[in-house]
Design brief:
Layout lengths: L15 H8 L8 H28 L2 H5 L4 H29 L3 H30 L1
Helix pairs in contact: 2-4, 2-5, 4-5
């Protein structure tokens, strides 16, 4: 069999750029031993951040409601606005963390926000009932 004249000659060694391209996929992933506890801490950090945001979103509307004669409706409107702003903040921060390759923190933010919504609603209704009386 005769060699094909249209085929490129075989190289003795791999080109130096080939080794850099192969390792690029593994460059962003930490070793398996470090991956677990770090991700758990980041998820817990996101959950804590979202729950703290719910606390602020429930307590902060009490300030303008205390300055008015009829605190109930003011607290209700400010509370809904605060929760909507918190939801927008969680989405924006989650997208930013995901872009920076910190998906664990973004997942923690979503988990904390979802877990805090019913609690914030119950606490908000309790405060609203106390303000109305």
């Amino acid at each position: 069999m005769t060699p094909n004249p249209y085929r490129a000659p075989l190289l003795a060694a791999r080109p130096p750029i080939a080794s850099a391209v192969e390792n690029r996929a593994n460059a962003f992933e930490p070793p398996a031993a470090e991956r677990g506890p770090r991700r758990v801490r980041r998820v817990r950090s996101g959950i804590g951040t979202a729950l703290a945001g719910h606390g602020v979103a429930v307590i902060l509307p009490m300030l303008p409601s205390m300055l008015t004669d009829d605190p109930g409706p003011v607290f209700a409107v400010c509370g809904v606005v605060a929760q909507l702003l918190l939801a927008a903040f969680v989405v924006a921060l989650g997208v930013a963390r995901t872009v920076r390759r910190d998906g664990a923190n973004a997942v923690g933010l979503v988990i904390g926000w979802m877990a805090g919504v019913p609690v914030a609603a119950i606490v908000g209704l309790f405060i609203l009932a106390n303000l109305a009386t």
